[in-house]
Write a structure and sequence with these properties.
Layout: H1 8-27, E1 36-40, E2 46-49, H2 53-62, E3 68-72
Antiparallel strand pairs: 1-2, 1-3
């Protein structure tokens, strides 16, 4: 199977579409706010954990060449250099 090259913008767009159109309703609960959801943009599978590492390993074990993208649940960005992150209220 030949890999299709995608720009980082396209990977992000696909992940955001998957998140906004189904994953968000499943994971955006009070106990998950601030955790990371890692999404396989090709299959739509996802996993949640505190920093995303365990989820990424889990998804990589299932599909070694998967294109993964992380989103911090409840926030507009996954990380911040200044230490301040803006909440994403929807």
């Amino acid at each position: 199977m030949q890999a299709i090259l995608l720009s980082r913008e396209e990977v992000g767009r696909r992940a955001r579409d998957l998140y906004d159109n189904g994953i968000r309703q499943q994971v955006e609960t009070e106990e998950n706010i601030g955790k990371m959801v890692i999404i396989n943009i090709e299959t739509g599978e996802y996993a949640v954990d505190k920093i995303g590492l365990e989820s990424a390993r889990y998804l990589r074990n299932k599909h070694p060449f998967a294109r993964l993208f992380g989103i911090r649940i409840g926030y507009k960005v996954a990380a911040s250099f200044s230490g301040e992150m803006e909440r994403d209220y929807q």
